[in-house]
Amino acid sequence: MAIKQQTPKFWQKQTMPARLLWPLSKLYGLISHRSLQQKAQKAQKLPKPTIVIGNINVGGTGKTPATIALTQALQARELKVAILSRGFGRNTQELTIASTKLTALEMGDEPYLIYQKTEAPMAIYHNRYEAGMALLAQNPHIDCFICDDALQHRQLARDIEIALIGQQGFGNGYLLPAGPLREPIERLQTVDYIWANGADEETIHHLEQAMNTPIIELKATLQDPRSLYTREILPFNEWQTTPFTAIAGIAHPENFYQMLEAKGLQFTTRSYPDHYALTETDLADITTPILMTEKDASKCLHFKREDLWSVPLEMTLPEPLVDKIIDKISAKSS
């Protein structure tokens, strides 16, 4: 039996459990704010412009698709982009330079996916400054760095900050552990851009009224499933009469399921915790074909079954936004 995703339901509403934990949230906020300030005072600056992508929530806002989309957009403009990632959930803590020989378990599922999609030079390490310098030693012509999931990594100085908000918005608005926030909503006043990935109109309207930070509304779309075994692509309309199971080991599995339902599909589901290391045994009792996120598929590439399908998620960025980011990079470079 699969382990269900662990995000507390009370994080979405100001219910009694959330209110009881609110004093701990206040304490967390004070300690976290002080720690982040101390780290920022000692921040190290990489020699190339540095873009940070992150969020103030715990997971599930689309940071990985956003990192891929921005990297590809800058690559299309002939910029040499390098990626820095922590590599959460990988089986080593050593500084690792990405290569085609490494697996998702060695790199982390999100860095692995980003590398497969972009082929950008990538270093994976908890210290992003050391990772960046290691990449520069091998690739001296790098134009800029993109740091995945690093909004709270204040040890590294940044030139551009991008914060994502997703379908769940800010939940009940409380900091951990009473709510899903790592930092208060006011933190978004200091970032360069807010990218709204599926956030509802009420959340966006509230932000527009509360702050002057540019808000860019984005939309991620599912692409037709691709077989992990044959690489065949089977259009969604072919799945409308095919029984299948959708699985997801991401922060908010329901987002994936809702996107599949929007395609007119009916299916059973099985959810796992975020970054869960899937094994063949986990799926052995599922007798139907399985559709999964690309992030989950990265850990199933060598499974010995022929009915596993990856569902790509594609995010595109408005060209005027890419123009502005390139202008900022050029200004920082000079």
Automatic annotation (TrEMBL):
In the Enzyme Commission scheme, what number(s) does this protein have? Answer: 2.7.1.130
**Which SUPFAM superfamilies does this chain map to?**
P-loop containing nucleoside triphosphate hydrolases
Enzyme class, first EC level, given as a word: transferase
User: One MF term from GO for this chain?
Assistant: lipid-A 4'-kinase activity
Where is the chain membrane-spanning? Answer: none
Task: List the pathway annotation.
Answer: Glycolipid biosynthesis; lipid IV(A) biosynthesis; lipid IV(A) from (3R)-3-hydroxytetradecanoyl-[acyl-carrier-protein] and UDP-N-acetyl-alpha-D-glucosamine: step 6/6
Q: Does the keyword Lipid metabolism apply?
A: yes
> Where along this sequence does the record place binding of ATP?
N57, V58, G59, G60, T61, G62, K63, T64
For whether the record's keyword set contains Transferase, the answer is yes
Keywords per UniProt = ATP-binding, Kinase, Lipid A biosynthesis, Lipid biosynthesis, Lipid metabolism, Nucleotide-binding, Transferase
Q: Which reaction does it catalyse?
A: a lipid A disaccharide + ATP = a lipid IVA + ADP + H(+)
Q: Which HAMAP family match?
A: LpxK (MF_00409)
Task: Name the job this protein performs.
Answer: Transfers the gamma-phosphate of ATP to the 4'-position of a tetraacyldisaccharide 1-phosphate intermediate (termed DS-1-P) to form tetraacyldisaccharide 1,4'-bis-phosphate (lipid IVA).
Q: Which family does it belong to?
A: Belongs to the LpxK family.
Q: What is this protein called?
A: Tetraacyldisaccharide 4'-kinase
